[in-house]
Amino acid sequence: MVIPEASAAASTLGAAAAQSGRYFGTAIAAGRLGDSTYTTIAGREFNMVTAENEMKPDA
User: Fold this and answer.
1) How far apart (Å, rounded) are the C-alpha atoms in residues 17 and 29?
2) How far is CA 30 from CA 16, 25, 33, 54, 57, in A?
3) What is the longest distance spanned by two Cα atoms in the chain?
4) CA distances in angstroms from 46 to 1, 12, 13, 24, listed in the order given
5) Residue-wise pLDDT tens digits, 5-40
6) What is the CB neighbour count within 10 angstroms for residue 14?
7) Per the confidence metrics, is the pTM higher than 0.85?
8) 9-13 contacts, C-beta under 8 A, 24 or more apart
């Protein structure tokens, strides 16, 4: 396993995952999509998003 030097570290969680060919995602509730702080952080840090509880059969 190769550990990159601190200077080569990615600036976001999604970018760090992408360096090894992976995705780093989160589940987001539809009600939170109107919160600009929440969506800004999610857009910056994650490179994959899925629905939270809205997609569950009993929701």
Assistant:
1) 23
2) 26, 16, 6, 7, 16
3) 46
4) 24, 8, 6, 6
5) 544 567 888 888 889 899 899 999 999 999 999 999
6) 20
7) no
8) 12/44, 12/45, 13/45, 13/46
